[in-house]
Design goal:
It holds the Pfam family Nitroreductase. The chain is of the alpha+beta class and 223 residues long. Helices cover 43% and strands 13% of the residues. The protein has a 4-stranded antiparallel beta sheet, with helices on both faces.
Amino acid sequence: MGDYDTLSALLAARHSCRAFRPDPVDRADIERILTAAQRVPTWCNSQPWQVVVTSGEETYRLRAALTAEAARAPQNPDLPFPTAYTGARQERRRTCGWQLYAAVGVARGDRAASARQMMQNFAFFGAPHVALITSATELGGYGALDCGGFITGFTLAAQALGIATIAQAAPAGFSPFLHDWFDLGPERMVLAVVSFGHADPDHPANSFRTSRAPLDEWVTWRG
Ligand SMILES: Cc1cc2nc3c(=O)[nH]c(=O)nc-3n(C[C@H](O)[C@H](O)[C@H](O)COP(=O)(O)O)c2cc1C
């Protein structure tokens, strides 16, 4: 296999895992994922991420506390959440939401069931590990962009080791809580978490795959 084929196969095989087995990932493998992911480019090579990785009891304590917080507190992310999804983006968002609900048996319009599924975000879908991704506040949107590249690198490196991942912005909605919990000052911006571990391949939440738009929907060729 050539390099392109290898990379394409990894990109195609990666998907967001929403049901994990509880068994932990070896520390050496987590270090390999982090070491590979940090090779992504950043503006001025600033490498603006700081990452907290939880394991074992720490993940379970965080899960319980964040679930309680999410049931109680209003959302207050450091990086403002999108204000609208319109047009094709709205369509794609709906489609992937319906795919998930159909997979796990949430009927359209069943708000209680969809809220229960949403709350799974704060239990990290059962993942044994969480990587909290923060950026340097002073770098603004470009720091966040660099960290987005890191998240992609993380998910692909994990995939290459057979480790499942999901990037989640939902926990970042409770940024004040996460600042307190992890003792983060205002100079850090909470962006997202990546929950990771070994997939539960038979769980219905892992039974669907999202699609991608054809090139002619989003590429403009000039010259
Ligand atoms: C920055 C970012 C934030 C995301 N936040 C969430 C989230 O809070 N909850 C969730 O279930 N999925 C979340 N996702 C996963 C997306 O829904 C998923 O990547 C998208 O639907 C494409 O599906 P795929 O990852 O399986 O290819 C997020 C993905 C990214 C990149």
